[in-house]
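Two folds, back to back.
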Amino acid sequence: MYTGDRPVESAKITVFQYDETYFKERQLGSVEECKECKDSRGVVWINIDGIHDISVVETVAKIFGIHPLVQEDIVSIHQRPKVEEYDSYLFAILKMLYQEPKTRVLQAEQVSMIVTPKIVISFQEREGDVFAPLRERIRNGKGIVRQRGSDYLAYCIIDAIVDYYFLIMEDLEDRILPLEKQVIDDPDPHVLQSIHSLKYDLVFMRRSLWPLREMLVRLYREQLPLVQPDTQPFLRDVHDHTIQIIEILESFQEIVSGLMDVHLTSISNRMNSIMKVLTIIATIFIPLTFIAGVYGMNFQIMPELSWPWGYPAVLGVMALVFIGMLIFFKRKKWL
């Protein structure tokens, strides 16, 4: 059962066939045409966009002898990155991260791969991915991808996904830098919301990166029959990139946690400043209120009430008290 959102469009199957001197690209009209790829020349890359159509996955599995548990993992989109070895193929799951263009919300799409000695089958949830540069290299014969086997193609797919992580990290850095200034100058609730959003995105990325690191370690350290020795250094390089991204991610998490502490401190300092001003005002008016309260009592015998200068004298005393307390607070550096 497919566990993701069910898109409206039908599944799209694209096939790349190539070797060092030959290249052919075509889009299949039906999934049954994949049988022709089993005896094709060179390396074949079958990319399937739209795993919501369970019949497509089942038909491909029958053609290439894919285990039922692998089929289940392909259509269950909440799997963690991993690699599994079967008798005649390798099965790998990765998380392809991308951002919504308008909202910049971080999203993840599951990419599943079947790697055989000559064929790589990739399954994606929907059309649109980060493999455009890889496709152009294959079309134009740039690099060494058309000189290598299916294991190198699988490496290129993994490398394209990992390289896009760097672009996401750059965008996260661009979101963090303005917050460092805002959290001190204007720590309003919108800043706190942005910090929480960043924190969620960093945790989201961490869930994809840590299993990916373990997967790559197994690919280049274990002597897997389908992974050629000359491909292992490239996989080790992708592993190094993953470690680098994890280190950047951890530093960003520390910065965001520090921003949260600074935000709370700034709010507390602002509240203390407000309370300080209110306390000083209240302290100044306490003796003035006392004087006004004394002369507001309804006693008949109060000599000052019949004195012509009584009212100005009381106002003068209150003014002197006010000025005296201001001078006192200034000397104490409370103002």
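---
second:
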Amino acid sequence: MHTRIYKLLSLLVIVVIIALAIFIYPKYFNNLIKSINPNFLGFPEKEFRLGLDLQGGAELLYQADLTGIKTEDIGAAMDGLRAVIEKRIDIFGVREPEIKIMGDNRVSVQLAGIKDPNEAVKEIGRTPYLVFMEPKENYEEILEINQKALEEQDYDKMQDPFTPTDLTGRYLKKAQLNFNPQTSEPVVSLEFNDEGSKLFEELTKNNLQKPLAIFIDDELISAPIVQDVIVGGSAQITGKFTDKEAKELATNLNSGALPVPITLISQKSVGATLGIESVKASMIAGAIGLIAIIIFMIIYYRASGFLASLALLFYGVLILSIFKIIPVTMTLAGIGGFVLSIGMAVDANILIFSRVKEELREDKEIGSAIKSGFSRAWPSIRDGNLTTLLVALILFNFGTSFVKGFATTLMIGVVISMFSAIIITRILMLAMTQTRFGKIKRIWR
């Protein structure tokens, strides 16, 4: 029974390798089949998403309004702005935008694969600037002036009755959609971090029985009267929202409220920093390295090395297919993570084969030696890969977009490499032991 299962599974592995190879590079298979049957419609073609360094894209230049920001806080405000924009574009670390601070008040955003700069603007989306404002000392007087100006239609005399405070979206911890229990109208509930909670408490304390204005993108959303000192950092945005508008606002605020307002001042297309020849040279170098590894594995580990090479092919086509499906933006940093994970896959196989050799030296049967070898090698493989995953997670959480791209491909690669080494290689080896080659011990030593 086990003999048939392992043989069927090994056949399935080979079929999957072929199917995934077609998915990765359908053009070659389409040309091959069409040369035989011109009526063949062809397999659907899906291209890899390439990074800015490989295919170019669009560049947006934003200018930040630092009015009211203290000189010593400008650096932190610009770093926060860069981080928020990056989070909006690249929350999963697979797009790898290039975001740079230019001078004191400008941010450059480069997005790969976008030829139309207007499309790049849509990619960034609406990143709201949230700020709480308190009434000026002569608030009542300004209201009277504004009322008179409205009656006389002399709008130039109108004044802003509110003044900005330090409480902005940079202190926002969470925003969510709720509904007013009395009116059933949608509202957006806000929760600030510890520093924001202190600012909000102080703000409500200083403005009892006065309006506290909430502005988003310089538009007054609501101005509730402060009834009590609010402790705990919770606030609520009310307004004439539809359910969809309130949900969208909460989503955008959660994705990152801008610490300072920004204005788009320039947009243009940018070219690739690496030429096609450089990409081809990198691919050739990678192919040569992979072939060298396969040759070494077959020469040194014989039958085990040959089967490990098949498992490595399975690993390669599976991970490239995943990169296409997600899709992961392929940059040199991402390719570096992929190549490193190949090394992890080979390392796991070497640990297993060394253990199998030790078991065979003790004159165990080949099937028993393989099972024992996998069992004894597993703790070392597990610890090594979990350590790498932990480092990759740290890089993903604290790194910039390019570092996140490297970490993402490395994490995917490590998980797939463990599956390839432990499951696929085991299936192929146990299936081969059920053939006549399983009785020839010298090809396994």
